[in-house]
Structures are given as structure tokens and as C-alpha cells.
Amino acid sequence: MLNKAFVVKSLAIAAVCAACAGAAHATDVTIYTTAAFSPVANGKYRLDGFGRGDTSKPGLSAATSDASSFASQAFFDTWDINVDLLSPGNYQFTYTVVQASGSVLFSNVAFNSYDELGNRNSVLFEISADGKQASGSGSFSVVKPCPVQSCVWIDVFGTQDLSVGQTGYGANFVAQIPEPGSYALLLAGLAVGAGIARRRR
Predict the structure, then answer these.
(1) HSE toward the beta carbon, residue 76, CA cutoff 13 A
(2) Residue 162 exposed, middle or buried by CB count within 10 Å (0-12, 13-18, 19+)
(3) Would you write out the chain's pLDDT as a tens digit for each of its 201 residues?
(4) Of 122, 170, 173, 181, whose CB is crowded by the most CB atoms within 10 A?
(5) CB–CB of 78/155 below 8 Å?
(6) What does the angle CA 109 – CA 85 – CA 34 come to, to the nearest 5 degrees?
(7) What's the Rg (C-alpha) of the chain?
(8) Contact at 8 Å (CB) between 35 and 81?
(9) Is the dihedral of CA 39, 42, 44, 48 positive or negative?
(10) From the CB of residue 128, how many other CB atoms can be counted at a distance below 10 Å?
(11) 161 in Cβ contact with 103 (< 8 Å)
(12) What is the pLDDT of residue 41?
């Protein structure tokens, strides 16, 4: 069942590439495998190895660069996340901000996962007006074993000018198992929704 979901993911990536093929510079999908959740205090897990930057490029520094003044090219990064240290189940993250530096401007940032039924869950991050920040909160599932390359991943899509130094992005990303109170609120919300639906009938 997850094989079908993998095909859908591959088709989505192909569609993004096809949409960008008409641009001056074709978009290459870059797959990163360095991201991994590792445990920290109080039952929380930190995402290490996510984010990229290149300070070796010549050009203006991040403090003095104006991204709109350069010829931009599109990029599409996929971060396959290693969840070996997480138990199967549901996790949540709250108000995570991905910050861009240099000439990077975000178009779309999404945190994705497959559940045990093969359904894809995508949390779309909100992009700031200037394109320099992507922020979001949500939940994701950890399924083991995962029959595809990765059942948890982050997609980052945007534009950049590689001649600008210190170009990249990163985030301080922390996940945790939802607290019992969160489950209680969810169940209460479902009960209220069911009650309203009954009254309307």
C-alpha cells in the first residue's frame, strides 16, 4: 500500500520539475540524507543535520545582500529523515521556524509523513511576506518498518543566487509525543463535532 504512496510522491516531484523546466534554469531535485531525530531531555527529539549553507561562495555577505537584485534560480530540496531512534507512533511539533540566509527565498516548505495505512500527511508551512521565513506546527507519524526510501521527509522549494555568500537555511526543530492533555482536547473536539452533526440531521 505504501508503494502506491511512494509513486504519488515521485509523481509530485516530477510535476514540480516539469513545471520548472520552462524556466531559464531547470530545477534539480537534491535529496539529503543527513537529517535525523535524536533524543534530548524531557522526552523530546531534536532534528539534527537539517539545513544547508555555503559560505565559500564569492559575493556579498548576507548582511548587505539584496536577494531581489540578483538573477535567481529555483531549487527543490528533499530531506529524508532518519527516525531510527523514535518509536512508532504519532509526534507533534509546535511553531517551528525555518530561517533563510543570503539570497534564499522560500516558495514552499512542507513536513511530510506516511501513516500505517499509507496515507500521506503534509504540514504546509506559512511563508513570510519577504520569503525569508517559513513557520509551522503540526503532527507526523512514524511507521516501522518503512517499505520506501523514507516515510518522514521535508520538502523545501524556493529560489537562490549561488553567487551570494552565506546562502542557505536552517531551523531549530524539536518534536515530541503528544501529551495526554492534547489527546483529551482532540477527543473533546471530535465529540463536540459529532454532537453538532447529529443535531443538524
Answers:
(1) 15
(2) middle
(3) 555 655 555 555 545 444 444 443 456 799 999 999 999 988 899 999 999 986 444 333 334 344 444 568 899 999 999 999 999 999 999 999 999 999 999 999 999 999 999 999 999 999 999 999 999 999 999 999 999 999 999 999 999 987 877 789 999 999 998 865 444 444 555 565 555 555 555
(4) 173
(5) yes
(6) 45
(7) 19
(8) yes
(9) negative
(10) 15
(11) yes
(12) 87
- Here the cell at position 55 is 559560505
Amino acid at 29: V
Residue 28 is given by DSSP the state P
- 3-state secondary structure at position 133: strand
How far apart CA 146 and CA 15 sit, in angstroms, is 24
Extents of the domains making up the chain: 2-200
Q: Are strands 105-114 and 152-160 parallel, antiparallel or unpaired?
A: antiparallel
Q: How many residues appear in the chain? A: 201
Listing DSSP states for 61-128 in one string gives: -TTT--GGGS--EEEEEEEEPB-TTS-SEEEEEEEEEEEEETT-EEEEEEEEEE-TTS-EEEEEPEEP
